[in-house]
Amino acid sequence: MRSNSILHLETERPGPHQAAAWRDAVAPFWTFAIRKEDVADFRGHSQVHHLGNAILCRASASGLRFERERGLVARMGVDHILAQLRLSGRARIAAGGERDCAPGDICLFDLSRPLSASSTDYQALTVVLPRPLFGADQGALDTLHGAVIRGETPFGRMLNAHLRALRAHATGFSAAEAAAAAQATAVLLGTAALGTSGDARAGAAPDGAPFLLLMRRFIEAELAAPDLNAETLGRRFGVSRSALYRLFAPLGGVSGYVRQRRLARAYRDLAAGDGRFARISEIAYRCGFESAAHFAQAFRAEFGCAPRDVRGQAAADPAQDRPLRTETWADFYDWVLRLAA
Fold it and tell me: Does a structural domain hold residue 205?
């Protein structure tokens, strides 16, 4: 287990050089845009701790707009939960609706789903946790992508204090202490998240088991099966059609979720090295699509480009299938991809 590894992003001069360094540092999570008139004065600073089964970041930056678009989500293929405590500055978040996030508020994001946001100059504490750390509360998190835990509530104030203390003491933790701190953070965030929605427990079985997570793992393993649908899931897990629809409603329904996961798998196959040599129709069939034409149509609707465009980029740039890296942040992308409970 990697624990207490630290990365720093600090440069003395604001401006285009610092904006480029920031772009490279945050590439595992976001693409971002800065107004042309703001580039000359752009500032971005970050310090990242790897705590073994969590990643903790203290960052500040000039105002910007950032997004996690569908292609980036598909390329990464991670299922982590990100919680961000705003220390200063305001953000407008678009993720299944729009919400404002003010200083003291805590925003929750599911990194397996797209989002966009705009922010003023800000400072923030961010923690990234693998979904399994949330245990029985995992299903509830599917309803809360983009949710905001208000800092003025009693529990919100306690979470503020916890996250600030986590950052203050993280460098002194042993590996076992870091793991315990990450687990405690997941418990607190899961409890707070459950309180923000009356329907939050829709994703969990009555006995508290992470039922929806089991179904999602089954879907990932069976993406190539042409009969992967609500009927198959109902028989496999003994769940009624109406219960399935309630479980998957936050994820776009059963068929919508299965299609999205198939397209994400296809995107990664096309962008990977072997995707340059496989026929597009072959990739379509092994990802569960019945025809190459239907696959191409769905792919363009999801990602805004044709399958051949993604494969063409991979063929033109042999490094395209490798994680984006920088000389000073060479391990960060790997940290995110390999984060596990």
Answer: no
